[in-house]
Each structure stands twice: as C-alpha cells, then as structure tokens.
Specification:
Elements: H1 3-15, H2 21-55, H3 58-106, H4 110-114, H5 118-160, H6 162-209, H7 211-216, H8 220-272, H9 278-319, E1 350-359, E2 368-376, E3 380-384, H10 391-398, E4 406-411, E5 414-415, H11 421-427, E6 428-431, H12 442-447, H13 455-464, H14 468-473, H15 491-505, E7 509-513, H16 521-535, E8 539-543, E9 555-560, E10 563-568, H17 570-576, H18 579-596
Parallel strand pairs: 3-8, 3-9, 6-7, 7-8
Antiparallel strand pairs: 1-2, 1-4, 4-5, 9-10
Helix pairs in contact: 2-3, 2-5, 2-9, 3-5, 5-6, 5-9, 6-8, 6-9, 8-9, 13-15, 15-16, 17-18
Subcellular location: Cell membrane
Membrane topology: Multi-pass membrane protein
Organism: Paenibacillus ottowii
Length: 597
C-alpha cells in the first residue's frame, strides 16, 4: 500500500467521524500522550533511584518520589476524561454509520438489492462495522500512542547521548520497513477474510431460514457442509494471517533483542570507563525498551488496521450503490403513445396501461416483448399463462422496481414517470404469493397497511379479510407474536393478515400475484372470500395460477413468452379454443383425476 493510498483511505476513515472529529482527536491525543508520558517519566524515576543507590544522595530519592506522586495525580485526572471523550465520540460515530448504512440499504434500488445476498448485507452491517469501530478505538490510538512514545523517547535519548539516539533511529527505520512489507500482505488477507466471513453469514442465513426443509429432506450434511466449508475458509485465512503476524512479531523481536543487547553492552562499557553514570544508563535502557516495544505494537496496529480498512471498503461499496430514484423510472426508450382500441375490451378509462413494452433482466434475453396491456378502471383484469411467461415481471414494472427497456407505461391516463414513486405505490395495494410478515404482533403486521390506524380499524379490516375468527383463537389474540416471517401461523392465516393489511391501506388499485396458488383447498376458499371483499370497488390486476379463481374476471389476458397471446372473457376464450382453453382443460382434467383417485 503506497503512502498516497494510505492517506486517502485514512481520509475516508475520518470522513465518517466528521461531526465528532474535533472532540475525538482531542480525547484520543490527550489519552495517548498521557499514556506515553508514563514510560518516559518512569525513565527519570529509574535515573534518580539508581543515582540514589550509587551515591546515596537523598535529593535524588525525593525527586523520584515527587515525580511518581505528581504523575499519578495528574494522570488520574486527565486520562479518564480523555478516554471518555474519544470513546463517546466513537460510539456516536459508529451509531451514525450504522444508521447511514441501514438507511442506504433500504433505499437501494430493487435491481441493486437483488444482486446482494441478505447475509452479505447483514455481514457488512455487523462484522464490517465492528472492525471499523476497532480502528477508531484501538488501532488509531495505538499508532498515535506509539508514535508519541517513540518521538518523546528519541528526543530524550539524543539529549542524554546522541549515539544511542542514532542507533534507535536506524533500528527504527529497519523495523518500519519490515512492518510496511507485512502490512501490504495483511491488507490482501484482511479483504479476503472479510469476504469469507460474509460468505459464511450467507450460508448460515440460508441454513436458518430453510431449517424446516433441511430437516425434512435430510440436508443437514449437504447444507451444513456448505457452512463448514465457509467456516474452514475463514479458519484457513485466519491461520495464514496469524502466521504472518507471528513472522512480523518475530522480526520485530529480533530487532528489539539486538537493540537492547547492544545498548546494555555499550552502556556498561561506558560506565566502566567512567564516561557515563549508572543512572543515565538505566534511563537509556528504560527508554530503549520503550522504543523497542513501540515497533512491536506499532507493527501490530498497522497490520490490524488493514482489517478495518478492508471493512471500510466493503461499507463504502454499499454506500456507493445507487439509490432508488424518487421519480417513477422512465423507459429507456419510448414506444408508441397512442392507445390501440383493438386491445381494449370496453371503452373504459384505463387505470393501468402498458404500450409496446419490452423488458429483460439480461439485455440479450427479453422477458416481455412489445407487450400491450390495458387494465380498465374499476374492473378485474387477470393474467394467466405458463411459468416464466412474464406475469410477475409485469407487476414489478408497475411497482417501479425496474424501468422498461422500451415502451410506454401509463397510470390513470398519465405517463408513469410524471409520478413520484411513492405516489404510485400509495395508489396500489399488493398481495404476493407468499405474504411477508415481520416479527411482532398480529396487530403490528396489519397496521403496516396504515401506520396511524386505530385498533378498531385493524379489527374491522381483519373481519372483512375473514381473519378475525382465527385471530380470536390465538393465545394473545391481536397481541400474539407471529414469529420470524410469520412462522407461528399457517400459510392461509398469513395470507389473510396480508389481505387485512391491504384492506387497511385502502388503495384504489389492487395487485394480486398468485395470492392463493400455494394454499390447500380449504385455506384457498377462506382466503378467496377475503380477496373478494378486497376487490370490491377497486381496479384489480390479478395473476392467477388456478383458473377457477378468475372465471368471473372482466378481462382475462393470456401471457406466454413475454407476449399477449389472447384476451377476452372466460366464455370468449373457451369458445376460441386457444391457449386459455388448453390451460383450462389441463387443469380441469388434473382436478378431476385428483378427485377420483
């Protein structure tokens, strides 16, 4: 790592401390200087005591006692104050970093967020932030402390005997060169270690979230093996890192041993020749020991700082990711803006309209191809078709998760990009195939639809969603904890809470993404009753897997290979004998076989 690069990274590190930088450095430097002064002042104590032992001069003893007493009194007042000052600033800064990182994560665009494993993001929020805190509290303090101790000791050595001062400088430069050599390797290993720890968090997150499947399918060996492999990678890199730190400490120890041995031999010769007092030699040895320790501690601090800088790089990588724009994303290329009446069943104002929309998650593989779709105001429009045909992608475009590659998207007659993203999402209530519940009470999860809703409004929404019956049977009723991702509830119960949440939001446009496809017949019936209530007096776009649930839809659109193949009512499409009729016959035959089996 070059000096320029190191200075740049240090500036980045300090930029996160900016609001508290003044008091942080005041406390840090004050604490470092007071601790460094202890070693230096002790060298004078050794000097006075040895002179007293050799010459019997009581004044030397008094000087030592006064110096120790004064030092203790001063440091007992200054050191705790400075320590509290800089540590408080660190806690405040780290809290700011966590909030900034968290705030940025939740504002990441959907496209960017999908590229990161949740465990990876958790690792950056925990492991990387923790290593960053160690930089502020331990590593930077060690560097300032050891540098202060070296400079102070060197000045006094020069005053006592310039020859020993020059020896300390030469050996110090040798130690600095060795530590710089090891620091470069440590940085590379630290980055690799942080990445492996992130991978381990990902594996562990997968294991815990899929624990039920792991047990049911006997995957403990396979999935556990992935965690073990990630753990072994961490162990391997940590051992390699420890080996390099051990080699670094060994080199510094050899320099320390040679230095101390040289000082003792040379000093004793000078004392024997009456060219130096024994007290002066004792002080030089004390200072030289401190200088040698400086290089051991300084080398370790610089090496460990690489861990924190690697964590900083990973944090800044997330902070540099683009946020979701406030405005609804416009298509990359505009298509025709004219409404083609051939695609409209009734001349009713369109609540949602996709015109010549093309989109692909990968540039060379379009998921939607020049799609034309109109959802009339106040009507129920259903989308059916085979898996991978682009049904859920339509929902993602309408919710603003992705911009179309080409074409026009209108909402209530206006170009979508004329809206702010939050305005569009306020107009829509979304019920997915698998309801997302948060750890908390039933009431909390329903209230997410309208944070200011009263308890009576929550109960009314639950009743309309056919959820009040099972909620009343729960141990704590509306105050029952649903568990992580609603683990304490059945699939049908989770869906009815999601429907109650959507009811409470009271949005004019409803998006249903296969909301009953994962349920059994009994749960589907109960959930469907709730959906029927939710769909009243609303514009509804529903993706359906079971065609029996959308027979009464005003318009049914058959989407396959990203294209609109057919469009009409249930009776019209059956009469045409096309894709829809084939899908309906296939499901009817399958249902009949299941009933007669």
């Amino acid at each position: 790592m070059t000096f320029k690069q190191g200075f740049y990274e240090f500036k980045q590190l300090m930029s996160l401390m900016k609001p508290h930088r003044k008091w942080y450095f005041t406390g840090l430097v004050g604490n470092s200087l007071t601790n460094a002064s202890i070693t230096i002042l002790l060298s004078f104590v050794v000097h006075y005591l040895l002179n007293f032992a050799v010459n019997g001069d009581v004044q030397e003893l008094y000087r030592a006692v006064y110096l120790v007493s004064g030092t203790f009194l001063a440091l007992s007042l200054i050191s705790p104050l400075c320590s509290y000052m800089y540590k408080r600033c660190v806690k405040l800064a780290i809290a700011d970093v966590r909030m900034k990182l968290f705030g940025h994560m939740i504002k990441l665009s959907y496209e960017k967020a999908e590229k990161h494993h949740s465990g990876n993001l958790v690792s950056r929020m925990t492991n990387d932030v923790q290593t960053l805190e160690q930089a502020y509290t331990i590593h930077i303090r060690s560097i300032i402390l050891e540098t202060s101790l070296f400079l102070g000791s060197l000045v006094i050595l020069m005053v006592l005997d310039w020859r020993f001062g020059i020896m300390a400088v030469v050996l110090g430069l040798a130690s600095a060169w060795i530590n710089a050599h090891f620091a470069k390797k440590m940085r590379h290993m630290s980055e690799e270690l942080q990445g492996r720890m992130s991978r381990f968090t990902e594996r562990l997150s997968d294991l815990l979230s899929g624990l039920q499947m792991v047990k049911l399918f006997g995957l403990r060996t396979k999935v556990g093996g992935l965690c073990n492999n990630a753990s072994e990678d961490i162990k391997r890199i940590s051992i390699r890192q420890g080996r390099h730190m051990g080699l670094q400490d060994m080199c510094n120890f050899v320099i320390e041993f040679i230095t101390l041995g040289g000082v003792l031999v040379a000093g004793l010769i000078l004392v024997a020749q009456k060219q130096m007092e024994l007290g002066v030699l004792g002080q030089i040895v004390q200072l030289q020991t401190g200088i040698s320790t400086v290089f051991l501690e300084l080398g370790a601090a610089v090496s460990l700082l690489q861990n924190s800088l690697a964590g900083l790089a990973r944090i800044r990588e997330i902070l540099s990711e683009s946020k979701e724009e406030e405005q609804f994303p416009a298509a990359k290329q505009k298509g025709s803006q004219a409404v083609d009446s051939d695609h409209t069943i009734e001349q009713v104002p369109a609540a949602l309209e996709l015109r010549d929309v093309t989109f692909g998650y990968q540039p060379d593989r379009p998921t939607l191809r020049r799609l034309n779709l109109v959802v009339p105001e106040g009507q129920v429009t259903a989308i059916v078709g085979p898996s991978g045909g682009g049904k859920s992608t339509v929902m993602k475009l309408l919710l603003g998760f992705y911009p179309p590659d080409e074409g026009v998207l209108r909402i209530r007659g206006r170009m979508a990009e004329e809206f702010r993203l939050d305005e569009v999402r306020d107009l829509m209530a979304y019920v997915p195939q698998e309801a997302t519940l948060f750890h908390g009470t039933v009431a909390d999860n329903i209230r997410f639809g309208s944070p200011d809703a009263t308890d009576d409004e929550i109960k009314a929404a639950a009743k309309t969603a056919y959820a009040s019956g099972f909620i009343a049977e729960l141990p704590e009723g509306y105050d029952t904890i649903v568990g992580e991702r609603g683990a304490n509830l059945s699939g049908g119960q989770r869906q009815r809470i999601a429907i109650a949440r959507a009811l409470l939001k009271n949005a004019p446009i409803l998006l249903l993404d296969e909301a009953t496809s994962a349920l059994d017949a009994e749960s589907e019936y109960e959930v469907q009753q709730g959906l029927n209530e939710l769909m009243k007096d609303r514009t509804t776009l529903v993706i359906a897997h079971r065609l029996s649930t959308i027979e009464r839809a005003d318009t049914i659109c058959v989407l396959a290979d990203g294209e609109l193949k057919e469009q009409g009512t249930h009776e019209q499409l059956l009469a045409e004998g096309g894709h829809y009729a084939e899908l309906y016959e296939l499901q009817f035959r399958k249902h009949f076989e299941e009933q007669t089996a």
